[in-house]
Design brief:
There is one protein chain. The chain has 167 residues and is an alpha+beta fold. It has a domain at 3-112: Aminopeptidase (3-Layer(aba) Sandwich). 32% of the residues lie in helices and 29% in strands. It has helices at residues 17-25, 35-43, 87-104, 119-132, 144-147, and strands at 7-11, 48-54, 58-68, 74-82, 109-114, 137-141, 151-156. It has a seven-stranded mixed β-sheet, sandwiched between helices. β2 and β3 form a beta hairpin.
């Protein structure tokens, strides 16, 4: 039986905050989210906060995303991180659930920031191609006071918004 069968995805809970903070602290260019910010993320309407959990090892990955005003019907992925040993199966499980939620919410695009051509960017580009047959488009550099090396990118999903009331 493959290790992928032991990974399930669930919503982020308060009990996961220490895991998120610890994993974020080991990622280059990540901000370690304060407890209050993680709690607030759980209360933002439309935010998607997920944890991939291995049945025997506990949490192994997380994804934090919030809806943004521009572009219209977009979701900003703030952080996506995984324990190295479970990276492939955990990221695939998270992204599968995330994609399902984006379709259900009629989200048209994903926005994220990354250092261009960094290992993290190349990983995102690879998964974007695998899941969406799409590549990120550079939008603009972040202000230097926020992230002097990072650029904002857009992934178009092609999800058509559904008329209100139709499920």
């Amino acid at each position: 039986m493959s290790s992928a069968t032991h990974i399930h995805v669930r919503p982020l809970e308060i009990g996961d905050f220490k895991f998120v903070q610890d994993l974020a602290s080991r990622q280059p260019h990540f901000t370690v989210p304060p407890t209050y910010v993680l709690w607030l993320m759980l209360r933002i309407r439309g935010a998607i906060c997920l944890v991939a959990e291995h049945s025997g090892k506990g949490p192994v990955a997380y994804l934090l995303a919030v809806p943004v005003e521009s572009p219209k019907d977009a979701m900003f992925v703030w952080q996506l991180a995984s324990e190295f040993r479970q990276r492939e199966s955990a990221i695939l499980a998270l992204l599968t659930e995330f994609q399902n939620m984006l379709v259900a919410l009629a989200v048209d695009s994903i926005v994220f920031s990354s250092v261009p051509n960094s290992p993290a960017y190349r990983l995102i580009r690879r998964y974007a191609w695998k899941f969406l047959s799409s590549v990120p488009t550079a939008l603009e550099a972040l202000p230097s006071s926020i992230g002097r090396l990072e650029t904002q990118f857009l992934l178009s999903l092609g999800n058509k918004p559904r008329p209100r009331g139709i499920h």
